[in-house]
Amino acid sequence: MPLPQIDRFLALTSTMRNDDMYADMTINRRGTIFKLHKNIVCTQSKPLAAAFKGNFRESEDSTIVLEDDEPEIVDVVVRFLYEQALELNATATEIGSLLLLAVKVYVIGDKYDIGGLSELAKNEFEEVVGRACEDPSFIPALGIIYKQTPDRTLRDIAIKVVTAHIDKFLAKREFTDLCEDIGALALDVLKATREPGNKGNNCKGYCFDRCWDCGGNLVANCFGMMKKYGRLSTLCSQLPRTTLVL
């Protein structure tokens, strides 16, 4: 039985990725060379296509030098451009590595305006994020999401996981430090814990402010403690974790 037309086309482009006989462009990532085809790459990425227009060096030697992108991430991009598929398991096997890879692929998909790649990366992230919430890679991944993604797609998914395990995250210095560094993250956590049905809405709302005494970041258990003691209770980041400043 013959393959459907789209499958035959993808089989052809997949073969082209491994055969540079007719390649007419090069991507150079710090010595890692990718021999590619403009009609495959430039039709799917406007930023990469723009590099070959005008009086740029790239238009003269048909070589794009990528200084900031990791070779393994570029390889994932190239594989997608030729095969229209995303298989992160081929690059990473541990859950934490998969999580970070999905985030980085989403970021590069947005950077080079490859919408299909970002969509698949979002799906991969959504699939693994719940299982990776206690992995050491989760908080670094959260930092990348808030510093390098321009939209709310991954943020909204990640915040749901954070609020579902808010007590565990607030006990981690790495998380509270990240909230201190990224105000948008702290605000999202505060808003999410007050939404109906969220764990933080059961007499536990957490807000972030600065300690008047030491200037350090603090986590304030405003709602639960005010109900219990009639006054605000704060946990200062400069004091032992069991110390309450009342």
From TrEMBL:
Entry-linked SMART domains: BTB (SM00225)
Domain BTB positions: 23-90
Pfam families per UniProt: BTB
Domain of life: Eukaryota
Protein name per the record: BTB domain-containing protein
Lineage: Eukaryota, Fungi, Dikarya, Ascomycota, Pezizomycotina
